[in-house]
Amino acid sequence: MRGSTGDNPRSATPAWTGTIQRRGVGRQLMESAVRLGESAGCYEVQLPAADDEYVHTFYEACGFKPLAKGFRRYIAQGPRR
């Protein structure tokens, strides 16, 4: 992966993204994942999304509707002193 920051995989950018963007691959993967969930009896797909507009645009193009903005706070998991 390129663009990795520390041990947090959420902040990494896969090295292959630029080579396959805008070719429908992401949409096909998303549709496959939705069909797999549907065949397993799932009734809903929920996606966490960063504040990146291109992510929102992609999800909406795949038929997802924005719901709400969320918040998260990380708490240190080290030993208590």
Task: Describe, in plain words, how this protein is organized in 3D.
The chain has 81 residues and is mainly α. It contains three helices and no strands. The chain has one domain. Helix content is 35%, strand content 0%. The longest helix is centred in the middle third of the chain and has 15 residues. The radius of gyration is 16 Å and the shape is extended. The N and C termini lie far apart (36 Å).
Distance between the termini: 36 Å
Q: How large, in whole angstroms, is the Cα Rg?
A: 16 Å
Flag low-confidence runs. 1-6
Question: What general form does the structure show?
Answer: extended
Instruction: Count structural domains.
Output: 1
What is the number of strand segments? 0
Average pLDDT reading: 76
**Secondary-structure class:** mainly alpha
Strand content: under 5%
What's the helix-strand series? HHH
- The helicity comes to 25-40%
Query: What characterizes the major β-sheet?
Result: none
Specify the number of helices.
3
What topology does this entry show?
Elements: H1 17-20, H2 25-39, H3 53-61
Short description:
It is built from three helices and no strands. The protein has 81 residues and is mainly alpha-helical.
